[in-house]
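Troubleshooting: if your tokenizer reports a length mismatch, compare your output against this known-good record of 242 residues.
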Amino acid sequence: MVKFPTATPQIAPPPAVLATPSPIPSTFTDGLPLPKLLIFDLDYTLWPFWVDTHVTPPLKAKDNNTRAVDRLNESFAFYPAVSPLLHAAHTLSLPLALASRTSAPELAVTLLKTLHIPAPPPSLSASNPPTPPTTSTFPKLRRAPSSTPAAPPPPKRAYDFFAHSAIFPGDKRTHMARLQRASGVAYVDMLFFDDEGRNRNVEALGVCFWLVEEGVTTEEVDRGVREWRRRRGGKSGEEGEG
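Known-good structure output:
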């Protein structure tokens, strides 16, 4: 789908919205096969703007690197689902890659390194362990912990979540070829999310393509994974879409 730039760049919701936890894709934990490499476009797939059109360097990090502002004080951040998606893939050791045809590759990489992904909130069980029962006759005052809880890990650069990247102008089949050489993953084991239908031509290589029209979401990732499974002859839980 071709998108034409407007006078007012589209920007992501404020950081408070971006920090709201979102469910991870159900296909990540259903026990069925997963692609060996998940590949994402950037513009209008991971973030809601064209980095080569809407962003005017230099960039400056804001709000603990959850967003960045450019020289015109425009604000830029990821779609809300990106943060939990990256953490889920990292936890499951599911390799990620980038494939963008932007004409501003250096600016795209700079933004990826400027935007940080906050650590996920600690689990309830980890932060509030159950109190062991007591056999004392009289009520017992709870002692303060002997040591302070471990600090949460620091935010991580978004760029560091991706094992491979191909960010340069040109036909996306060239991007897939570079990622294949770098990763060693067969084309049929790749799943590529992109917002432009013309990039479906990567399927000639054997890559499974999934069209994302309104930015990546948990649901879109699930649909893409199920379509990849359907093509591979595996169970997907529902018919392929797109």
